[in-house]
């Protein structure tokens, strides 16, 4: 289990070392279960970033 | 610190759990029961509860109320009255289901809400006695098919029983939380669990994805009438036939005979979960004749064969509803009293080849399945004990509990062409995850979205060892695989000095996919934004 090596010519053609291709498939909204320590951590993160989620509405 | 507990309130049994110093225990009531029958019975003006009330089913069925939880918050026209076939009949009480009971003042109509309050009050008193302090709050678990009206009726009944409800959670989530807290060694981390709750009069399933400790329910499934009572009935019919063969008398013709057989069959069934044979003894079953003998597990498995198959089919249907294959299930968590039966766990082990089946019969470290829901509720109660009401309300509002989830796995292509998944399907966003992989001299990290599929291969066994009981039937071998199908972005770097690279995938709140790769032990790093997804 390892990463492949660079194909020849790739590095000189892409000096940034990065190429964007496309966005991932649209995510779907789902309900998460409001239980457990993992959820509480998620709730704290979300509520802290709340100004952003309020902008979204 | 306030005194909080977790409550499981089933149609058949209820349990109370309490977390103290990080340890959860299921509390016994004053009779010594941890699985307290959800039953209330009246003999004249005396009220009986729990096991004592259940014992009244033989002599005093008309004044004994069982299996009433699912009637809360529903009009009479919406209930399945057959759930109470062996006890007081539910009737139309106008705004709610009611029972006609004799409580020392002639027959009166008693609402199901009042019965629930009476039952829950006993739980409250048992908890208060045990802990030595009044109960400040509870977390209670309800099935996933409960709607607002039914949930509200449960909450109101708890409040009537002097147990303020801090939070209502779902039964399967509670069970999974309890199992995770008790058994990190059995299964942990990201996975797909099938939570199968097999009770007395119903079976419930939930397919739950765990990602970074967050649970997302992907599908739920319910079977009403499928549960331990059906197994009891199968034994009842078996015993009745055997008795009739011998004595030419049908014990099912007499109501009391039926009740006695039901009682003994349940005891036999439970014994057979632990031992390979059980004795039974019924005094004066019919015509004044006593009935006793032994029955072994194999006989029970034969008698209940079709019902066991139903449980297995039910489990497979739940997974199908989630759009998954049985091979996608990593864990089957068995919950509820009926989950103690070894045959059920064994059937599921062969239906879910990739899964760890968590049940006492196949995993000695499994928590008693009938305790899981109460334990999970107690764990959650301890977590929110010191929150004030508005904090709990804030945390459970939609901006927190509704999150976009990925619909396909995202990973990096390895040298052999396979895809190493970094962010699995059904992961709530935002998320950031990485993998560390070997690389030499340079690396090329192609980030793909992928697709799961099942490979089917016909296998014809060959008899190399001249085995005498060799089975040469060809069979289909099914294996799960994942392939990169959709290139999202590429990262590459020449002239690296270390031998390992960390590939990082970050999806932001704005659904921007940021990918990067950095050489471990060196300075080389490359990064970029592959794209921004739109919410469906
Ligand atoms: N050790 C055991 N082996 C087999 N069956 C058992 C065992 N213990 C309990 N049961 C059965 O489990 C059933 C009760 O399950 P549970 O306590 O989970 O009920 P519940 O949650 O109240 O269910 P429901 O709401 O479906 O009635 C009963 O049929 C009981 O006979
Ligand atoms: Mg239950």
UniProtKB/TrEMBL annotation, chain B:
Keyword Chaperone attributed = no
Which keywords accompany this UniProt record? ATP-binding, Nucleotide-binding
Q: Indicate the segments annotated as coiled coil, or none if absent.
A: none
Protein name, as recorded? YALI0B12474p
> What are this entry's molecular-function GO terms?
ATP binding; ATP hydrolysis activity; ATP-dependent protein folding chaperone; heat shock protein binding; protein folding chaperone
Acidic residues bias located where? 463-474
- Cellular component GO terms, alphabetically? cytoplasm; cytosol; nucleus; plasma membrane
Q: Name one GO biological process term.
A: protein refolding
Q: What family does the database annotate?
A: Belongs to the heat shock protein 70 family.
Q: Where is this region: Disordered?
A: 455-478
């Amino acid at each position: 289990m390892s990463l492949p090596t660079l194909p020849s010519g790739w590095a000189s053609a892409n000096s940034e070392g990065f190429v964007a291709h496309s966005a991932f498939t649209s995510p779907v909204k789902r309900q998460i279960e409001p239980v457990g320590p993992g959820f509480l951590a998620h709730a704290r993160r979300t509520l802290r970033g709340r100004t952003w989620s309020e902008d979204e509405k | 610190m306030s005194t909080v507990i977790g409550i499981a309130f089933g149609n058949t049994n209820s349990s109370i759990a309490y977390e103290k110093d990080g340890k959860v225990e299921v509390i016994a009531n004053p009779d010594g029961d941890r699985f307290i029958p959800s039953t209330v019975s009246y003999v004249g003006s005396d009220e009986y509860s729990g096991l004592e009330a259940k014992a009244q089913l033989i002599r005093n069925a008309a004044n004994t109320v069982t299996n009433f939880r699912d009637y809360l918050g529903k009009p009479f026209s919406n209930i399945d009255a057959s759930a109470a076939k062996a006890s007081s009949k539910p009737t139309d009480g106008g705004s709610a289901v009611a029972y006609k009971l004799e409580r020392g003042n002639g027959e009166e109509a008693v609402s199901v809400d009042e019965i629930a309050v009476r039952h829950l009050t006993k739980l409250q008193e048992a908890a208060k006695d045990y802990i030595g302090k009044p109960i400040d709050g509870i977390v209670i678990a309800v099935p996933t098919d409960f709607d607002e009206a039914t949930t509200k009726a449960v909450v109101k009944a708890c409040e009537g029983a002097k147990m303020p409800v801090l939070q209502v959670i779902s039964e399967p989530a509670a069970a999974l939380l309890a199992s995770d807290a008790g058994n990190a060694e059995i299964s942990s981390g990201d996975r797909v669990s099938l939570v199968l709750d097999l009770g007395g009069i119903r079976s419930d399933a939930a397919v739950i994805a765990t990602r970074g400790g967050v649970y997302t329910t992907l599908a739920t499934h319910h079977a009403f009438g499928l549960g331990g009572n059906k197994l009891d009935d199968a034994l009842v019919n078996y015993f009745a036939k055997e008795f009739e063969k011998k004595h030419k008398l049908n014990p099912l013709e007499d109501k009391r005979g039926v009740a006695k057989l039901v009682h003994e069959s349940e005891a036999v069934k439970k014994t057979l979960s632990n031992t390979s044979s059980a004795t039974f003894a019924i005094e004066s079953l019919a015509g004044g004749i006593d009935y006793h003998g032994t029955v072994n597990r194999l006989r029970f498995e034969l008698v209940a064969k079709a019902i066991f198959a139903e449980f297995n089919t039910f489990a497979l249907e739940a997974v199908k509803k989630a759009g998954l294959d049985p091979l996608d299930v990593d864990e089957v968590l068995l919950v509820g009293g009926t989950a103690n039966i070894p045959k059920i766990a064994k059937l599921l082990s062969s239906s879910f080849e990739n899964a760890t089946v968590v049940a006492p019969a196949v995993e000695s470290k499994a928590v008693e399945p009938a305790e899981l829901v109460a334990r999970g509720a107690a764990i959650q109660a301890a977590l929110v004990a010191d929150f004030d009401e508005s904090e709990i309300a804030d945390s459970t509002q939609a901006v927190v509990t509704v999150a976009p989830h990925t619909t396909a796995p995202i990973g990096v292509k390895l040298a052999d062409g396979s895809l190493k998944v970094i962010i699995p399907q059904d992961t709530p966003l935002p998320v950031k995850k990485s993998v560390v992989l070997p690389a030499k001299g340079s690396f090329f990290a192609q980030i793909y979205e992928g697709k799961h599929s099942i490979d089917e291969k016909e296998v014809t066994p060959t008899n190399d060892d001249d085995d005498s009981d060799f089975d040469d039937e060809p069979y289909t071998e099914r294996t799960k695989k994942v392939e990169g199908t959709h290139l999202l972005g590429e990262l590459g770097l020449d002239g690296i000095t270390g031998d390992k690279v960390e590939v990082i995938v970050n999806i932001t709140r704005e659904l921007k996919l940021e990918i990067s790769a950095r050489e471990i032990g060196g300075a080389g790093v490359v990064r970029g934004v592959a794209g921004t997804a739109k919410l469906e």
